[in-house]
Amino acid sequence: MKTHEVRTYKSAENLAREDQLAWKIAEVAADPVAVDSDVTEMIINRIIDNAAVAAASVARRPVASARAQAMTHPFKPGATVFGVENDRTVSPEWAAYANGVAVRELDFHDTYLAADYSHPGDNIPPILAVAQHTGKSGADLIRGLATGYEIQVDLVTGICLHEHKIDHIAHLGPSAAAGIGTLLGLDTETIYQAVQQALHVTTTTRQSRKGEISSWKAYAPAFAGKMAIEAVDRVMRGEGAPSPAWEGEDGFIAYLLSGPGTIYNVPLPEKGEAKRAILNTYTKEHSAEYQSQALIDLARRMGPKVGDLSQIESIVIHTSHHTHYVIGTGAGDPQKMDPNASRETLDHSIMYIFAVALEDGGWHHEKSYAPERANRPETVALWHKISTTEDPEWTRRYHSRDPKEKAFGGRVVITLKDGTAIEDELALADAHPDGARPFVRENYRNKFLTLSEGIIASAEQTRFLQAVEALGDLKAGDLVALNFVVEASRLGDARPTGIFDYKG
């Protein structure tokens, strides 16, 4: 890997294309290096993981709405939509959009946390949709996804967006565009322009994850994937993009990030170097914000030590800056303490999550968020006894590049009414690659079978898993096998019509 310094340049400095971040990303995407076998295996795991979460969310309102929008854009050859028969294909950008919402709705797929935050699995829907539409093979898809993961992880490693309240999908648009470029075998110039265009149209604020969090949290990455496809299409037709997108005098760094004078350090593979960044990412065992994963496991471990939870006087979670200020009491969001808050808001309240996990000894992707569960009086009472505080050491470990120090959890102090203090800490979720029970293929398979039980028929579950696990052998045009089909009755209530299906 080579670390590249990225900063703002005045227009008069005339920064050469070869020295721009977008060009360097494009060079990585256009480099026809082989994909290592362990990377291929992890890509298969993450396609299974995405499908598992999509199956569990297929009937939920936001997913049904996105699917209804997509189905008004039928197209041949097109791409498939999760749950829908394979012969009912839609335009690829709309398939990416519908499937992206399904993947993201439950906040239950893979994650990478460094200078910023991300869910790299969000790259899969747009790259897969384009691969299906263009008749690519499994090997082509693997190369495209290796690039998508690589670029997103590298951008997240080097450039912090959240401190400027920019949503992390600003890293996803460029990574998906780069992955599509690799998939299609595009030249460096074309990918360069597409990456910049994708950045320009996917930069939004973090209000989507603040206050009254709405379903847009699930839609935002899907929208970024859709925009990435459109960006690549536009550039393939000979159009350009704002340039230089990151370094320009009026560009991304100058006015949306830390401004002139600031240097960002972005690592990228050198020419001929394999793209292995997916191996630095990790999935979720529990359907909740990633910073809550280790704390759910810790609550599960501490519950038996406490015994009678009614005897708890207070709970203080000592944790990182991110956990405290984004999903903890440091956010200052009263909605995070509201039993009538949306699922999306509860998912970003570690106080609620820790209370329920402590009471139930675990977490369920639906039952733990049910309104009747959130309104249980004893839960509300316990919930309001919980607070978070930033511990500089946990913040340091959160940002550490040393895998032996990296930590996403915290230390919890439970004080009982008699003054007894029960303390414990956990740095990494059990399912993390360095955790107590790292996820392997069998865990991904079980996650898919569990989340799709009663939704996808048994024979279809088996067919899907067999197809994915043979991904490298799928021939050109065979990628339709990566869709799953369910009975129409499993797709949720019909959605109200909108502009696209307006009939007057």
| Number of domain units | 2
In the CATH hierarchy, the third-tier topology of the largest domain is known as 2-methylcitrate dehydratase PrpD
The CATH class assignment of the largest domain is Mainly Alpha
Principal-axes shape call: globular
Sequence-ordered SSE layout with sheet pairings:
Blueprint: E1 2-6, H1 21-30, H2 37-57, H3 61-71, E2 74-79, H4 92-104, E3 112-113, E4 117-118, H5 124-133, H6 138-158, H7 169-184, H8 188-201, H9 216-236, H10 252-256, E5 264-268, H11 293-306, E6 312-319, H12 321-326, H13 343-346, H14 350-360, H15 371-374, H16 377-383, E7 386-390, H17 392-399, E8 410-416, E9 421-426, H18 441-451, H19 458-469
Helix pairs in contact: 1-7, 1-8, 2-4, 2-18, 3-4, 4-5, 4-9, 5-6, 5-7, 5-9, 6-7, 7-8, 7-9, 8-9, 11-14, 14-16
Question: What structural keywords apply?
Answer:
60s Ribosomal Protein L30, Chain: A, 2 domains, about 45% helix, about 500 residues, 9 strands, 19 helices, two-stranded antiparallel ribbon, alpha+beta, 2-methylcitrate dehydratase PrpD
Can you walk through the features of this model?
The chain has about 500 residues and is α+β, with helices and mostly antiparallel strands. Helices cover about 45% and strands about 10% of the residues. Strand 8 and strand 9 form a beta hairpin. Helix 11 (about 295-305) packs across helix 14. The longest helix has 21 residues, at about 35-55. It is globular and about 70 Å long. The chain starts with a strand and ends in a 35-residue tail after the last helix.
